[in-house]
Design a protein that fits this description.
It is a single chain. The protein is α/β, with parallel strands linked by helices. It has a single domain (8-184, 213-236), classed as 3-Layer(aba) Sandwich (Rossmann fold), CATH 3.40.50.720. The protein contains eight helices and seven strands. Strands 3-2-1-4-5-6-7 form a seven-stranded parallel beta sheet, with helices on both faces. Helix 1 crosses helix 8 (213-224), helix 3 runs parallel beside helix 4 and helix 4 (101-129) runs parallel beside helix 5 (150-170).
């Protein structure tokens, strides 16, 4: 991708799944990359897998003080942040009637409030510098109805609208987009689904498979590149055709 060499990239939730694949892709493009993740084991593993990382940072994105401290460390290590991939998120699969206030609060805190904290911190830095790109991980869950994920769905719908609002207010200096993956074969997805459930999902997807994390990473790389300089305020799905006919809700 044009223009990614030398760019300074911060990726939240970067120790596994989509985040780890995105870190690897930006390193391949010649970018400097810091990964932020609260999972200590995950940070150790990603340092071993990607020894060229500029840094691995510990923070709970739902804690503003921790976010500010970690972002400051990323700036210190890399000299600035040109691209933010705002990817950290959690999910809990359960019936709507069984969602507890504590579960609701935690999912919203990480997936929406945390995205806001990191995005606002990065945006202030980028606006002062005069340029930047903020990319956020939404989901097809934020675009249509899915059972058993009421809190997750609500949080991702919020990310989509937050992205559009930010794009309008931060232009022309900072571009803001979201990527909305469909079903991706990540550790989080694998932990929640049995083999039979995965096969049933694949049957409903037109391309008959889950996406690989590397495919989502490629979309992030494109949107951060100079090839996407006229793109802001939009949400891009990568779902194998899943939402084209609303198949996942059937």
């Amino acid at each position: 991708m044009r223009g990614l060499k030398g760019k300074r990239v911060l990726i939240t939730g970067g120790a596994s799944g989509i985040g780890a694949a995105t870190a690897a892709r930006f390193l391949e493009e010649g970018s400097a990359v810091c990964v932020l993740d609260r999972d200590a084991d995950g940070r150790r593993k990603i340092r071993q897998e990607l020894p060229r990382l500029a840094g691995t940072l510990d923070a709970d994105v739902a804690n503003l003080d921790q976010v500010k401290a970690a972002f400051g460390e990323a700036v210190r290590v890399m000299g600035g942040v040109d691209v933010l991939v705002n990817n950290a998120g959690i999910s809990i699969r359960h019936n709507f009637l069984d969602v507890t206030p504590e579960e609701w609060g935690r999912v919203i805190a990480v997936n929406l409030t945390g995205v806001f904290y990191v995005a606002q911190t990065a945006a202030r830095h980028m606006m002062e510098r005069g340029s930047g790109v903020i990319l956020q991980t939404a989901s097809t869950n934020g675009m249509m109805g899915y059972p058993f994920y009421a809190d997750y769905n609500a949080s991702k719908a919020g990310v989509i609208e937050l992205t559009k609002s930010m794009a309008l207010e931060l232009a022309p200096k900072v571009r803001v987009c979201a990527v909305a993956p469909g079903y991706v074969l990540t550790p989080m997805q694998r932990a929640e689904y049995t083999d039979a459930m995965l096969e049933e999902v694949n049957r409903k997807i037109p391309l008959r498979r889950h996406a690989q994390p590397e495919e989502i990473a490629a979309l992030f790389a494109f949107l951060a590149s100079d090839d996407a300089q006229n793109i802001t305020g939009h949400v891009y799905t990568c779902d194998g055709g899943e939402t084209a006919g609303g198949l996942a809700s059937r």
